[in-house]
Specification:
about 300 residues; Heme iron utilization protein-like fold; Glutaredoxin; 2 domains; 6 helices; elongated; binds FE2/S2 (inorganic) cluster
């Protein structure tokens, strides 16, 4: 895996898209690799969520969602970023989605799903005046995906238009700051590692793979062992981890390993032997070790 770089290499790629009703959208592309998009999205969803809105704008449909508090979950699993708030959640494909431990997603679909183009944009009116600012993503089929709306100086906090001459231009500071980092590369990424690549352990809490749903002892055993080892590894619960059998199921993101039939004792071994020392607990790895080599994506 390439070393994390805090310096974005500018693409110097700018385009304009006419708007049928007049005006245009100006795009400035930036690299859509995980070590660039990851830090950007982490900033917007975990640190600057108060200034971020999520949605899409396509012909015939506009969606705008705001955060009323910090998201409860912001985690990358098998290529998809999941962000969960009290009222709604989103999934956005940042890397290849392999399709769980068996790698069932066909190669073409992996390419189609993930972000293949990313741009900062300004939407200009007929008089070439910028009137909205944000970030646009496209998938591998060239379709517009999610839109991130950045603060607009022409509206107040209730989204009402401000009177002429009363624009709050300081609201553009987030757009300018992020553009400096991710489009122009004149400021460093504000992390020493990709925050979305920090390792974590998760336990499936769905009843499909573990009817009794007694995942609490597994979580507790993992948390205790992580603490004993003094590791910087988050422990969390999750929805389906695409195993759906022989629960409790545990996933270690550090090297994409799934475990089945995890007991509290096995949970402790996963941390002490695998996470701390790099030796997976083979008897519980899924798919079983004798077939794993032939099915790895
Ligand atoms: S329901 Fe637990 S892994 Fe799918």
């Amino acid at each position: 895996m390439p070393e994390f770089s805090r310096q974005v290499t500018p693409l110097d790629h700018r385009t304009a898209e006419p708007i049928v009703s007049g005006g245009q959208i100006e795009y400035e592309d930036f690299p859509c690799i995980i070590d660039v998009i990851g830090p950007l999205l982490y900033t917007l969803f975990q640190e600057r969520w108060q200034q971020t809105q999520v949605g899409h704008v396509v012909e015939g449909s506009v969606l705008e969602l705001e955060f009323t508090q910090a998201p409860k979950i912001c985690v990358l699993y098998d290529g998809y970023l999941t962000v969960v708030t009290a009222a709604w959640h989103l999934h956005l494909c940042l890397e290849e989605h392999h399709g769980g431990p068996w790698g069932r997603t066909p190669p073409e679909l992996r390419q189609q799903r993930r972000i293949q183009r990313a741009s900062f944009y300004r939407r200009l009116n007929k008089r070439s005046q910028a009137r909205s600012w944000g970030i646009q993503f496209w998938n591998g089929a060239g379709e517009k995906m999610m839109n991130l709306f950045l603060p607009n100086p022409f509206v107040d906090d209730a989204e009402k238009l401000l009177p002429e001459g009363k624009a709050q231009l300081d609201k553009l500071s987030l757009y300018e700051e992020l553009r400096d980092i991710y489009v122009l590369g004149v400021r460093p990424i504000p992390y020493i590692e990709n925050p979305l690549k920090r390792p974590y352990l998760s336990v499936c809490r769905s009843s499909r793979c573990y009817p009794s749903q007694k995942w609490q002892p597994i979580i507790e055993a993992l948390q205790t062992a992580v603490k004993q080892e003094g590791l910087e590894v988050s422990v969390m619960t999750s929805g389906c981890l695409e195993v759906c059998t022989a629960g409790p199921v545990v996933f270690y993101s550090g090297d994409r390993t799934w475990y089945t039939r995890v007991t509290p004792e096995i949970a402790q071994r996963i941390v002490h032997e695998h996470v701390a020392q790099g030796h997976p607990v083979q008897a519980h790895v899924y798919p079983p070790i004798k077939t794993q080599a032939s099915v790895q994506p």
